[in-house]
Amino acid sequence: MNTLLILSLLLLAAPPTAESEPEQPADAEAEQPEDSSSDAPSQTEPAPAPVEADEPATDETPATEAPAPEAAEEPEEAESEEPEEPESAEGVTTAPVQPFVQSPPPVKKPPRPDRPLRWRLDFSLGVASTLVGDTGYRAFSNERSLLGPDLGVRFDYRLGRRLFLGGGARYQRFATERNPYDGLLSTELVVHEPTLYARASLMTVEGVDVFADLGGGPSIVLDQISSGQSDAKRRRTPAGAFSAMGGVALYLPKQWLPGKQASRVTAGIETRFGYQFRTTVDMSTNLSLDDEPLRTTTAEYGDLGLRGFAWGVSLFIRVM
Question: Which of 196, 226, 265, 315 is deepest in the core (most CB within 10 A)?
Answer without folding.
Answer: 226
